[in-house]
Amino acid sequence: MVEKLISRVGELLTSRFEVDPDDVSPDASFDDLGLDSLAQVELGEVLEQNFGIEVSDEEMEKLATLADLAELLKQKGVAA
Q1: For helices 2-16 and 66-75, what crossing angle results, to 10°?
Q2: Per-residue pLDDT of the chain (80 residues; tens, 9 = 90+)
Q3: What are phi and psi of 78, to 5 degrees?
Q4: CA 42, CA 22: separation in Å to the nearest integer?
Q5: Distance CA 29, CA 26 (A)
Q6: What is the residue-wise DSSP string for 32-74?
Q7: What is the C-alpha separation between 68 and 76, in angstroms, rounded?
Q8: ∠ CA 25-31-36 to the nearest 5 degrees?
Q9: Which residues contact 40 (CB under 8 A, 6 or more apart)?
């Protein structure tokens, strides 16, 4: 399930933030993907719009990898 969430987030990253699809992997950090702190805040807003859940700025700051983000989405009830 986490893999499917990573894939869904990867699609958002490539379409909204112009991230190279080849760079999207579970262990990729936001730095690896070229997302600065402002882009991470924007990603939190995009996640809210697309998944209907709230991801606070503080939660985004604590995430190290896409796998961490996918796990948070899973905990918040987002289905893959």
Answers
A1: 110
A2: 789 999 999 999 999 999 999 999 999 999 999 999 999 999 999 999 999 999 999 999 999 999 999 999 999 999 87
A3: -75, 125
A4: 21
A5: 8
A6: TTT--HHHHHHHHHHHHHHHS----HHHHHH--SHHHHHHHHH
A7: 12
A8: 130
A9: 30, 57, 60, 61
Provide the whole-model pTM. 0.92
Burial of 15 (0-12, 13-18, 19+ CB in 10 A): exposed
Token pair, residue 16, equals 């909204």
Three-class secondary structure of residue 30 per DSSP: coil
Catalytic residues: 36
User: The tokens of 4 are what?
Assistant: 């499917």
- Two structure tokens written together for 44: 């939190």
CA distance 58 to 62: 7
